[in-house]
Amino acid sequence: MNELNWRKSTYTEKYNCVEVAMTPETTAVRDSKDPDGGILAFNIRRWHSFLSAIKADHYR
């Protein structure tokens, strides 16, 4: 997954944060402080469910 286009939120400015990269089937997540470390990969359906739960404030 090294060929992915990694991006992070513009809200982080210069600070470290998580980065995400998307393919048609998968969303990958990594720690920007350790870009060569582990990657979490989620299928698109699970990723969208996760985002919906965050938007609905289920994790507070």
TrEMBL record:
InterPro entries: DUF397. Residues 4-55 form the DUF397 domain. This is Uncharacterized protein DUF397.
